[in-house]
Design brief:
alpha/beta; 281 residues; 6-stranded mixed β-sheet; 18% strand
Amino acid sequence: MLLDFVFKELKIKKYRSHFNEFMISFHNYRHTKNADNSIHSFVKNLKKKYELIYLDEFQVTNIVDAMILGKLFEIIFSENIKIIITTNTKLDCLYKDGLQREKFLPFISIIENFSIQKELLLNDDYRLKNSDQAERTFFPLNEKTSFKINQKFREFTRDKLGEKIIITTKGRDFTIKNFYNGITRFKFDELCNKNLGSEDYINIAKICKHVFIEEVPIFNNRNSNQQLRFITLIDIFYEKKISLTLSLEKYFDQLGSSNIHSEIFKRTISRLFEMTRNKEF
């Protein structure tokens, strides 16, 4: 909220993007058939349009991004483009325990040399305030819960025509079987136990306004990959103001976590509370 306010007041050429979307735009540029699709060319194009870029929800989850970020930001700073980055993780803990993390360390050094890191410490979680009573979370997973979420889905889709939608991302087809004018429902495994990533979730978000996600499990070290996809999914849906209805094995405070994702998952839990209760979602 604070950074969005600052960003709005800055009277310069500026650009705000969710980090995942920024990296997708970068990779898309690199795969174009332009004569020059180099990193330098990508940054030069940024420089022509913006003096400042604001990257929200910075989170490195794959080795491809980890290896490229050092060079990318080295050139960004050499072009004197200013940056604002928000992240839920301290710099020296980014991509912790990631594959070939040593190739990511130059990025950390560059950011430390050219930026100021500030930690915002709050005693209160403001997402938990000012929520209405129309909570849309159902647990534990049993016949009663299944009946209630089916009933809620019928309420939301009454008088709406259902259809099947196919979303294509980088040649991959993803089918939405229950699409009712922006309202849809999925099993957790359909979204988080398949080979889907941020670009798939962004494309789903483009056509949805309310998503039912059923059978969210308890998280632990055995399903950490699925948990990471879930974190990415919720980050994107939150950015796109998509409201949620959920059925879960346990309530938010008992969902557990893998060791590696325990810190960033705290933000996810906070967002889930807001996205299933607040009126603006």
